[in-house]
Amino acid sequence: MRQSVPAHCYQHTFAVVIFPLKKLLSSGCRQCGRSPCRQRLKLCIYRAAKWRVFSSVETAQTASEAAAPSKKQATGGKAAKGTAQKGRGQKASTTSKEEDIRALRLDKAQELRSTGREPYAYRFARTHMAAELQRRFQDLAPGEMAGMQGEEVAVAGRVMARRVMGKLAFVRLEDDSGSVQLYVDRATLDAAQPGGFSELKALVDVGDIVGVHGGVKRTDKGELSVVASQLRVLTKSLRPLPDKWHGLEDIEKRYRQRYVDMIVTDGVRDALRARACMTSAARRLLEDRGFLEVETPVLEATAGGADARPFVTFHNALQQPFVLRIATELHLKRMVVGGFERVFEIGRVFRNEGTSSRHNPEFTSIELYQAYADYADMMALTEDLVRACALKVAGTLQLIYQGLPLDLEPPFRRASMHALVQEATGVDFEAFGDDVAAAAAAAADALRSAGAAPRAVAAAAGARSVGTALNACFEEVVEPRLQQPTFVLDHPAEISPLAKPHRSRPGLVERFELFVAGRELANAYSELTDPVEQRRRLEAQVAEYRAGVAEAAERSSLPAAGALPGGVHSGELQIAVRNSDEDAYEVVLDEDFLMALEYGMPPTGGMGLGLDRLAMLLTDAASIRDVIAFPLMKRL
């Protein structure tokens, strides 16, 4: 007949597995003092297995949660293991295990409180970071104890691994600077903190944040260690960390639980630190050149400065709608009008558009304006910014991005948009003059031959100007080929309403875009300062946009198949119409900006650079989400 055991003994009987000896050692219940017996240990093992607390994750992290079962009990055999990895059962099982572990850890937190030790401390007087210790004692020989004349160090951080071997325990402690080992000898710890070693075994888990005092030694195997004389739980972790060998394998979960990703995934914090260094380098360079950092509104009455769908919100007190800014441009130009000749802003910008490995609905840009300068000056400044950021983060201008060698050494290649498109497609759009229909048809044929998506073909065929047809070909055919840093110059006026007309090429403007690794990195103009011309262009842009939306609505009913005039197939046009309806949003003139220009803005060069994409290049990140601390995710 089974022996009756109090319920608390299941939680307070604990065991340590010593892997080399294949032995199971047990101590008695710390609540009632019952001596260990084989029958009670069997009952504890049975109930622990029944509660499913012996997940592979928690067992690898701590052996003090409960008695360890045999391999078959832990895994349920090969057949059970295979079944657990399939379907919803695995997710439900994982959730169950985590909740059981959480309940056990809550009990441990309560036990700490019951003995007068608060599991969530107010502060800890740390004397050294892990990296500082590694530097200070780098010459300490194996087996040698540091002579510190009775002085002790105090370190704090998260427990990332722990091994208990009889009267010794080894703990890997990680802080913001790196990691250091804790060498915990039972006699040393118990002498200064009675019961401290038992507390370590029973109440300290992987994931906990602890503070430790002690001397410094290097073990015989060469590991720098803090010899613990005092150990205190500063924060009790209630949830287990992912398995140390596999980490967070679910990419979606990595971004949703970014805080866990930062703890367990190598390189995540390094990428975010590199981004911060990059931003600091850009700010320092501009300030050294006399630029003033300013802040402009995020909430605006009208969206301007870019062609993008805004996020719309409502101000209750003012009883009117507002939008989140889609660019910082127009307010920065107002500051130039107001007399600030060199200004910049590093700020968040919001665009209600799709997400991809290169796009996030909220992103960070650095936008700057310099009076009495033009787009040639902006090219030189852009090269200097990229160079300074690369040297700060990577220490070199020769980078490898996703296997592609990149040379960021100035000067960058310069080529006009017309020349690049003609080189890639064989079509000379300058030869069309004002023949929009011929240019649109040629663009559609070129894209179709290049295997472009039907939406892109339809957009090119429906182009309302030669410039938009040219740009359609550029975006689809040329842009992906621009791997090495390239300034694309002299865009059509139709797609650049805020830039000055080109001094020598009618129909074009003084504008450049910087492309690296097939993506746009920066955009700059010789800024348009003529208020009359600026009004004309913006009014034309608004009219063209509204006409396009109306035309898309009229074409909502199309033949099921067949070709339409201009060589466009009805399927392609249906796709274009459907997307036009989805993308439609209100566009209005910013009358206040036009009024500001009428007070007079000096000749000005302006440039905007995407910091997220630059960070991707400098940290070799495949996705923009990897360089954003908390990327936007769809709510579950």
TrEMBL record:
<dbReference type="InterPro" id="IPR004365">
    <property type="entry name" value="NA-bd_OB_tRNA"/>
</dbReference>
<dbReference type="GO" id="GO:0000049">
    <property type="term" value="F:tRNA binding"/>
</dbReference>
<dbReference type="GO" id="GO:0046872">
    <property type="term" value="F:metal ion binding"/>
</dbReference>
<keyword id="KW-0030">Aminoacyl-tRNA synthetase</keyword>
<dbReference type="GO" id="GO:0005829">
    <property type="term" value="C:cytosol"/>
</dbReference>
<dbReference type="Pfam" id="PF01336">
    <property type="entry name" value="tRNA_anti-codon"/>
</dbReference>
<protein>
    <recommendedName>
        <fullName>Lysine--tRNA ligase</fullName>
        <ecNumber>6.1.1.6</ecNumber>
    </recommendedName>
</protein>
<dbReference type="InterPro" id="IPR012340">
    <property type="entry name" value="NA-bd_OB-fold"/>
</dbReference>
<dbReference type="InterPro" id="IPR018149">
    <property type="entry name" value="Lys-tRNA-synth_II_C"/>
</dbReference>
<keyword id="KW-0479">Metal-binding</keyword>
<dbReference type="InterPro" id="IPR002313">
    <property type="entry name" value="Lys-tRNA-ligase_II"/>
</dbReference>
<keyword id="KW-0067">ATP-binding</keyword>
<keyword id="KW-0547">Nucleotide-binding</keyword>
<dbReference type="GO" id="GO:0004824">
    <property type="term" value="F:lysine-tRNA ligase activity"/>
</dbReference>
<keyword id="KW-0648">Protein biosynthesis</keyword>
<dbReference type="GO" id="GO:0006430">
    <property type="term" value="P:lysyl-tRNA aminoacylation"/>
</dbReference>
<dbReference type="InterPro" id="IPR004364">
    <property type="entry name" value="Aa-tRNA-synt_II"/>
</dbReference>
<comment type="similarity">
    <text>Belongs to the class-II aminoacyl-tRNA synthetase family.</text>
</comment>
<dbReference type="GO" id="GO:0005524">
    <property type="term" value="F:ATP binding"/>
</dbReference>
<dbReference type="InterPro" id="IPR045864">
    <property type="entry name" value="aa-tRNA-synth_II/BPL/LPL"/>
</dbReference>
<dbReference type="Pfam" id="PF00152">
    <property type="entry name" value="tRNA-synt_2"/>
</dbReference>
<dbReference type="InterPro" id="IPR006195">
    <property type="entry name" value="aa-tRNA-synth_II"/>
</dbReference>
<feature type="region of interest" description="Disordered">
    <location>
        <begin position="62"/>
        <end position="99"/>
    </location>
</feature>
<feature type="domain" description="Aminoacyl-transfer RNA synthetases class-II family profile">
    <location>
        <begin position="278"/>
        <end position="631"/>
    </location>
</feature>
<feature type="compositionally biased region" description="Low complexity">
    <location>
        <begin position="71"/>
        <end position="92"/>
    </location>
</feature>
<dbReference type="InterPro" id="IPR044136">
    <property type="entry name" value="Lys-tRNA-ligase_II_N"/>
</dbReference>
<keyword id="KW-0436">Ligase</keyword>
